[in-house]
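Recall the central idea of this unit: under ordinary conditions, the amino acid sequence of a chain determines the structure it adopts. In this exercise we apply that idea directly, starting from the sequence alone.
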Amino acid sequence: MKAPWHSPVGVLPESRLLASVAEFTHHRDIDALDHSMVLSLAELIAVNSVTLCRRGESPQHPVDSIVVCSRKPDGGFVIEALDPTREGDPSDTLVCAMETLEAISDITDDGSSRLVIPIQREHTAIGALMLEAPDSLDDVRSMVEGFARIYCNYIALLNESERDKLTGLYNRRSFEQRLQRLLTLQRQKARGAAQDGEDKRRPVEEPSQLYLAILDIDHFKRINDTYGHVYGDEVILLLAQHMRASFRQSDVLFRFGGEEFVILLAAQDETAAHLVLDRFRQFVADHAFPQVGHVTVSIGYARITENDYPEIVLDRADKALYFAKQNGRDSVHGYESLTRRGELATPVSLGSIDLF
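Accordingly, the structure predicted from this sequence is:
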């Protein structure tokens, strides 16, 4: 990162402020926006660090992401994404500001000044900003609050472009970005596990694996033809709601179009992934949808490794889904297990998922 540029607090030229706003709002990727936001503030204000968090979608997971920009001894900056599930600061302080909707201005244990600003939309916090600096931050509070408001409005537009309008799940456009983000977090956790392994006093958890699953509603055309598209859309909407309730905050849910959904999930191994997916399949089969009655789904899944291209993993999961469709539907099949049994020895035609 380039060396910071600073002006005396309170007399920042308008051109510099406008340039900073223009810099972070030109991004169309939310993760890139977060990185640019913390760097812009760090370059404008003499700080030790700037931290930005986005709020999670459930009380069990109050933080979805944390990005921190820290000043290096040479005057430059380093930006890194932190594990949002970590306990202690900065998570605890950021969550406190989001829950109370009140700014926090205090002194840290090392004597630094700290300013925490909740990022609010319609009286609800969607995130929080935290600045730590060697000197008081009171004079820049109004500017930080202004950046928070701009960020809030802009991220609302980006969220709308990334979400499926009917279900609110992520759309296909955001798939590759979310996949890369999960892989990055996996690498960070793997490095953390390796460091824990060096300390014999700390238990080491077995690193989880990533899986991609494609879910398809069985005989969906028949539902539309029999009951009409209004009830077909209701089935899709209710299914999406059940997916949110059934899967974890860390799992990422997409609607790829029509009756097809994609799930990115972490599991200890293939057996664990299969159990999670089959439990949801059974839940759907047992549930009675309004007017339509009982509906079933077929699911195919495949493991993701760091060296896989998104289209390759989609291809594998789609082959497993095709196998489920051709063998009775209402079932879950994994690409790796089908391959080991020789079930996919013969080339299989791809389903309706369009590859990149």
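The CA atoms of residues 217 and 297 lie 4 Å apart.
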